[in-house]
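Before the break, one more example. Copy the sequence into your notebook; we will annotate it together after we see the structure.
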Amino acid sequence: MAGQVASMDFPGGLRADGLPAALSDPARLAAVEATALLDTGPEEVFEDLASLAARITGTGRAFVTLVDAERSFWKACVGVDASALEERQNRVEQSFCYFLVGLGGEPFIVDDVAGDPRTEGHPSVGPMSIGAWAGYPLLDPAGHVLGSFCVIDDFPRTWSPADLATLETLARSVAAEIHLRQSLSAARAAHQRSADLAHSLQAALLPPRLRKVPGVEAAASYLPASNRYRTDIEVGGDFYDLFHTHGPHYAAVLGDVCGKGIQAAQVSSMARYTMRADAGEAGSPADLLGRLNTALLAQSAPRFLTAVYTTFQPVADGLSGVIALAGHPPALVRRADGSVEPLGIAGTLLGVMHTVHLSDVPFHLAPGDLLLLYTDGAIEARPRPGTAPERAQAIFSEDDLAAALATSHTLDATATISHLTAVLDAHHSGWASDDTALLALRVPSLP
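Here is what the structure looks like once it is written out:
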């Protein structure tokens, strides 16, 4: 066999075993491995293309073959009884496919295998009853030969121009299918990497766990918007925080930056840490939000945001605090008896105007009372697209949120957040139209 191979002029020369050196080219082998088709079972698309080639050319056998350095693996084999994977391959020296690899992508056409000096001594001629062979290379976009698309006739024949044109077209179709799969796989991998990065960045914008406050239960949740119309995953602009300011005083903040992506994440991060840094110096929640507005306007590319900020301290009969809203929906207070009331006076959103109007509102939570902060994803939730028309326009409103909160009046902070999350999920069926952040503070009930 080596003598037969050596008699041919292969551009890349020969290996020590007399086969084309191109078989062992690392770049080509990497390309073959990247198809992820080696040692995989039959698939309809490849079987159909091979069957079509066998039918059009009138041959009994057709193959889609991947070729590595040592073997030819038949991804499709029509006219051969081979179901197990170990039966769907042979040693590379027993295959004509190495001719295509050695020729660098040129077709290999033989009308009379036994009478052609290139193939008359080939070891597979007799065992595989090969009378005529015609094959075209499977090429990747870089020009690497992955394998072959070929047909075999039991008897010598003259391959017609129509036969060869058909084989060439079908070979391109097989190669295109392989490349499409690789592109989709790469796109999915890139999408997953983007999603992982977005999730990591989003997690960095939120506290890993809520700070423990003496005499107060605290719980929070964050649900990113569903990305039905996008192929990328973007970081949302919602954020929340709970931290100690000074002495017996603590602060809770929840905000929503306009837009998504890296810039929104930068603004969220800046807002969160600006409020932490200024919390000890600002005289009140309204003062602190005013400082944040100044900081936002100083940015080279300012973005507006809405926020609710409260400072509070545990007291003998519960919790006392002050709250301010900056373009944000009012907080909700759930009393121990289940009644719910809004809290806060509407104020100017931040990052747009130099003069803002913000108001401090004092409040008190008695044992069993709960304060809920939320972003507008909780009051603008819509059913999953494609639902019944009568439901498609149903928006989960402020009244709906208040009602859901009222029904949970026997629950602690953590259970309340879980309850609200479940109610929202039932409304939108797991499809969130916007990011949704919830933060609850509750004074435990008396024993």
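The longest strand covers residues 305-315. Residues 1-6, 227-232 have pLDDT under 50 and may be disordered. Try to locate both features in your own notes.
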